[in-house]
Amino acid sequence: DAKTTQPPSMDCAEGRAANLPCNHSTISGNEYVYWYRQIHSQGPQYIIHGLKNNETNEMASLIITEDRKSSTLILPHATLRDTAVYYCIRNNAGNMLTFGGGTRLMVKP
Amino acid sequence: DAGITQSPRHKVTETGTPVTLRCHQTENHRYMYWYRQDPGHGLRLIHYSYGVKDTDKGEVSDGYSVSRSKTEDFLLTLESATSSQTSVYFCAISPGLAVYEQYFGPGTRLTVT
User: Fold this and answer.
1) What's the pLDDT score for residue A93?
2) In this structure, how many other beta carbons lie within 10 angstroms of the beta carbon of residue B7?
3) From CA B109, how far away is CA A20, in angstroms rounded?
């Protein structure tokens, strides 16, 4: 039970912004939202995390709704190398990451 | 990859044989984790360690044991491999819990015939 809901797949045109949604309606006040991605045949890669404020780093931006029930990962200018499975995760009571099915993002030329 | 290596990268073994997978880190991070990844199940935590000789079970620990005698090494052992343990195994490290991200190794593909 990953406790987050993501669309199974999405397409994005190269150079455009990719907006990946995640629903975490039962998130508790002290749980962070993490985003990881996994490129085919590689280990997962950390992207970004946040609690309640929007966050930005060199890879992506994370927008968290005010009620914290959902979030959106934004890749501002998607490239072909961003094709991967993206996981939205909330850390559970034991602080162990629980990976669900994720969203398979396909960036197309 | 953040100073994490896994060995072997690929292994084929027979049912009933013991298998040990090794994770080695050069980051001196306190926490180390073993996950397995199977189609339809995502990544699932097997065991983790929060220090030398300090380990605990994860979601799918049955049939697996771990040991950590040095900060840099975390071993995963399948005492008697079964076909259901055919999977890709990932090691991860992190400097702490909660707000700290985890860094993953390249994975070990294990096939039990």
Assistant:
1) 47
2) 12
3) 29
String of DSSP letters for chain B: --SEEEE-SEEEE-TT--EEEEEEESS--SEEEEEEEETTTEEEEEEEEEETTEEEE-TT-TTEEEEEEETTEEEEEESS--GGG-EEEEEEEESSSTT---EE---EEEEE-
Query: B15-65, pLDDT tens digit by residue?
Result: 999 999 999 999 999 999 999 999 877 889 999 999 999 999 998 999 999
Averaged pLDDT of chain B: 92
pLDDT in tens, A25-62: 988 888 889 999 999 889 999 999 998 889 999 999 99
Please tell me which of the candidates B98, B103, B105 has its beta carbon nearest to residue A91.
B98
Helix (H, G, I), strand (E, B), or coil: what is residue A81? Answer: helix
Q: Is A80 helix (H, G, I), strand (E, B) or coil?
A: helix
Residues on A contacting B at a C-beta cutoff of 8 Å: 2, 32, 34, 41-46, 49, 87, 91, 95-102
Best CA proximity match to B32, nearest among B79, B66, B81:
B66
Say if residue A104's pLDDT is above 50: yes
- Please give the Cα distance from B3 to A18 (Å, whole number): 30
d(CA A60, CA A67): 21
Non-local (6+) Cβ contacts of B21 within 8 A are B6, B7, B8, B11, B34, B75, B76, B77, B89, B91, B108, B110
Q: What is the pLDDT of residue B2?
A: 64
